[in-house]
Amino acid sequence: MLDAISITSVCDIILFLIGLFVLNKFLVKENNLGFTIRNSSYPLAYAIAISGSFLTPSISFGVEYILFSAVDVVLVISLLLLSMKINSSIILHKLDNDLLIKDGNLSIPIIESGLMIATSIILFSSMYGEGKYTDGLIFFILGQSSLFGMVLVYEKFSKFDDFALIKQNNISVALIIVAMVIGFSSFIGVNIFGDSSPHGLAEDIFAFLYFFAFGVVFLIVFINKFLDKVFFPYQEIEDEIEKDNFFVVIPYAIMKLSLIFIIAIALH
Fold first, then answer.
1. How many structural domains does the chain have?
2. Contacts (Cβ under 8 Å, ≥6 apart) of 230
3. What are the per-10-residue average pLDDT scores of the chain (268 residues)?
4. Structural domain of residue 120, as residue ranges?
């Protein structure tokens, strides 16, 4: 006979599969590499996000457990689908995404996929821990808003027109944006992660905003300059991005993502 842990695990897997089936109904089905890249990010984003709920210490298995887990699945799918629309309308608001993807643009679905993974990391942290649903939703909204703010600040520091390069299918600028949003989402996520503070929601929000303000300055200003000067002293990174030079941009993006992730964990 299965023990309680095994039963809850089977229940979680079944609910995940049901949610995956539902999520698949909302994806655009076309024989196009761009749409394939975009669609491929959703199952992974869904798995990351719902894991926050499944990993949270919970009530013992029973009807109540199934109901709460089912609500979590519905909530996660709903927020991911909503984020899909909001991410594009805010981050890529100057572009007709679907039309450009149909014309063969790959930089847009790469950015969309990065944004979905970033959203799932924030959602994972929001769903994890004991607390009210409203608290989780508040921090998810704060996290997403912070992510949008970070991208807008990054654009202000960029010396070229990111949207023009994205429209021209510049993969390098897409990779840099993806590294930034996933890295920053991990920075946000470790700040949200865990149970609610015993001192109340207001203190949690204040701590989050303080951490966000520090993160914007530190990650965007310091890390950019640090990586450029220390690891790539003989190359102008922004020029390489503009020229779409994969050989320089790919290791640069990976190093940036790795450094942000380690700093986020160290400062938690």
1. 1
2. none
3. 58 77 74 86 87 68 73 84 82 80 90 91 79 74 82 76 88 90 83 59 69 68 68 73 84 84 74
4. 4-267
pTM above 0.90, yes or no: no
* Tally of CB atoms within 10 A around 58: 15
- The contacts of residue 24 (CB under 8 Å, 6+ apart) are none
Instruction: Please answer whether residues 188 and 143 qualify as being in contact, where contact means their C-beta atoms are separated by less than 8 angstroms.
Output: yes
Amino acid letter for position 70: A
Contacts of 228 (CB under 8 A, 6+ apart): 237
Q: For 91-150, what is each residue's pLDDT tens digit?
A: 877 778 888 888 889 999 999 999 999 999 988 888 776 666 677 788 788 888 888 887
Q: What's phi and psi for 236, nearest 5 deg?
A: -90, 100
Q: Which structure tokens are listed for 98?
A: 């679907």
Give the distance, in angstroms, between the CA of residue 70 and the centroid of all CA atoms in the same chain: 23
Question: Backbone dihedral region of 128: left (phi > 0), alpha (psi from -120 to 50 degrees) or beta?
Answer: beta
Per-residue pLDDT reduced to its tens digit, 79-95:
888 888 888 788 877 77
